[in-house]
């Protein structure tokens, strides 16, 4: 889910899919994405600037998948209060709905009440922290307020504050991280469902969770392994943070992160896409490819391609599939869909990133929106920059290394990534 300063760019549809994440590190922590969480009573207080000891080095927070997004479970405040937020590499701010919340979307769990937390601290509008978020403004009480908007038309408004966020180590210990900047949302609207209590911002900007806690785990780096769409919500996968999250070994390939003015987003360069053995260059007949023409976004399910490339991909997929597309279902719009009980046997697509060929099987490219229907999980955009969404990212261990400025991909059955 991509954050845009105003004016909003509504180029992303907000679908919702289940995710699970966690990690094994040398020096770092893990985040499990599963349904239930057991919070242990043993606590280790860790300032953001501190390094984990051996016993604490793999903290994790459980996360589960629901309706197209990957929901990470974090505990916030003192005593710890569980929240479930969308894991989002397309935005920075971590926020949750807070009491009082008079203009908010409905959520099934109770909301976080800052008055019940002994570690909650409002940020003054005179603080440098207030200005790290470009929408920080001063309230009449001299507190830092924020407005944060997404391309999917979601908006959160509230107080920018500092809190203790607690993760759970693989050894069953609670690892509180003090002084994390987050948004206490009092006015939140958009296409959120009642399981989503906010968003966990994992972008590259200064207020993202990874930027704030990176120094505690050996560097600003993390890896994720997203389970495919419609995976049973009881099955977990992992997101790892810190030095031990590097994606290495047989089958691993990497592509450079491209620096642009927008620090939040992870830009990479897509040279083209192959459908079977047919190679389709990004810019048609042109050999010139703009650097940073794709955004890696775990908060956007489909992959968005510039219209001209999208049309060529769809045309080739049609040629490779020996079935007649569904054309008489108005609920499917203009998507390329087929009526079949099981997913299609092919074709295999390959995303040719600069330095990294990433093979995509039908489980990553054809999604079932309803029974006996499978649709290509790609769509088009009028922008010349596309979005590589979480359908295509599934069943790959993907490592984001903000220190070396590379993203690595390694094929993996993420339902078995423990």
UniProtKB/TrEMBL annotation:
The question of whether Signal is a record keyword is answered with yes
Report one GO cellular component.
extracellular region
Q: Where is the Peptidase A1 domain?
A: 70-410
Fetch the PANTHER family from UniProt: ASPARTYL PROTEASE FAMILY PROTEIN, PUTATIVE-RELATED, OS07G0603500 PROTEIN-RELATED
Q: Which family does it belong to?
A: Belongs to the peptidase A1 family.
Gene Ontology molecular function: aspartic-type endopeptidase activity
Entry protein name: Peptidase A1 domain-containing protein
The superkingdom listed in its UniProt entry is Eukaryota
């Amino acid at each position: 889910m991509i954050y845009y300063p105003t004016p909003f760019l509504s180029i992303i549809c907000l679908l919702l899919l289940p995710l699970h994440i966690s990690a094994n590190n040398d020096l770092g922590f893990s985040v499990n994405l599963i349904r239930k969480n057991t919070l242990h009573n043993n606590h280790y207080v860790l300032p953001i600037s501190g390094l984990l000891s051996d016993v604490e080095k793999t903290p994790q927070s459980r996360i589960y998948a629901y309706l197209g997004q990957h929901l990470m479970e974090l505990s916030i405040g003192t005593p710890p209060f569980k929240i479930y937020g969308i894991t989002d590499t397309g935005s920075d701010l971590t926020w949750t709905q807070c009491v009082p919340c008079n203009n908010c979307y409905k959520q099934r769990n109770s909301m976080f009440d800052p008055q019940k937390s002994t570690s909650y601290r409002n940020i003054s509008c005179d603080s440098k922290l207030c200005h790290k978020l470009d929408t920080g403004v001063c309230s009449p009480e001299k507190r830092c307020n924020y407005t944060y908007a997404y391309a999917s038309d979601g908006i959160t408004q509230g107080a920018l504050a500092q809190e203790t966020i607690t993760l759970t180590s693989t050894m069953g210990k609670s690892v509180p991280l003090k002084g994390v900047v987050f948004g206490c949302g009092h006015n939140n609207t958009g296409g959120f469902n009642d399981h989503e209590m906010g968003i966990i911002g994992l972008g590259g900007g200064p207020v993202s969770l990874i930027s704030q806690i990176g120094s505690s785990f050996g560097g600003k780096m993390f890896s994720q392994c997203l389970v495919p769409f419609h995976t049973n919500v009881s099955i977990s996968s992992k997101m790892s943070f810190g030095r031990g999250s590097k994606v290495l070994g047989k089958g691993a390939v990497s592509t450079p992160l491209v620096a642009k003015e927008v620090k939040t987003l992870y830009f990479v360069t897509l040279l083209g896409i192959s459908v079977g053995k047919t190679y389709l260059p990004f810019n048609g007949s042109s050999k010139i490819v703009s650097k940073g023409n794709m955004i890696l976004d775990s908060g956007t399910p489909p992959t968005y391609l510039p219209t001209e490339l999208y049309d060529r991909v769809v045309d080739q997929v049609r040629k490779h599939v020996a079935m007649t597309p569904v054309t008489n279902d108005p609920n499917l719009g203009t998507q390329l869909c087929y009526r079949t009980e099981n997913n299609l046997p092919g074709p295999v697509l390959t995303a040719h990133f600069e330095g990294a060929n990433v093979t995509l099987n039908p489980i990553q490219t054809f999604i079932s929106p309803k029974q006996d229907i499978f649709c290509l999980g790609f769509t088009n955009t009028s922008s010349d920059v596309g979005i590589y969404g979480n359908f295509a990212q599934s069943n790959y261990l993907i490592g984001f290394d903000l220190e070396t400025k590379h993203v690595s991909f390694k094929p993996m059955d993420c339902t078995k990534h423990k």
